[in-house]
Amino acid sequence: MEQLKHSGLGITTFVLGLIAPIGLIITIIMAAVAEASSYGGMDPSSSEAMVIGLFLILFVILALIAVGIGIGALVQKGYKKIFPILGVVFSSVVLVITIALMVIGANAGY
Predict the structure, then answer these.
(1) How many domains, the chain?
(2) Is residue 78 part of a domain?
(3) How many CB atoms lie within 10 A of CB 46?
């Protein structure tokens, strides 16, 4: 039986799937520090709030790209599937957490 190799798409999905949650966690920590360091909280129109928002958008887009590439890697024949599966799972977790944070923020009542 022929040994299956890892596909380049699968490895890419896995790497992007690792970068997205790590980046999301770092961005959330940055937001918490910025909120706690200002008296009365962070100003929503400040430059640091905009940078934090841009990073959140960047990591969500990165997770969406990883899911798309991962689905493409999963349908390839003749390659191992572990990296695409892990990448899609990690990226999906990022998307679910982001959606949950949006729902919590929308229902916060501010």
Answers:
(1) 1
(2) yes
(3) 12
Phi, psi of 76 (to 5 degrees): -70, 140
Residue 72 contacts residue 9 (beta carbons within 8 Å) = yes
* Domain coverage including residue 33: 8-104
Q: Annotate 23-32 with b (16+ C-beta within 10 A) or e (fewer).
A: bbeebbeebe
Are 7 and 73 in contact by the 8 Å Cβ rule? The answer is yes
Residue 1 covered by a domain: no
- Per residue in 43-86, pLDDT tens? 888 899 999 999 999 999 999 999 999 999 999 998 999 999 99
Instruction: Give, for 96, the enclosing helix (H) or strand (E).
Output: helix 82-106
pTM: 0.86
Structure tokens at 85: 């599966």
Question: Is 3 part of any domain?
Answer: no
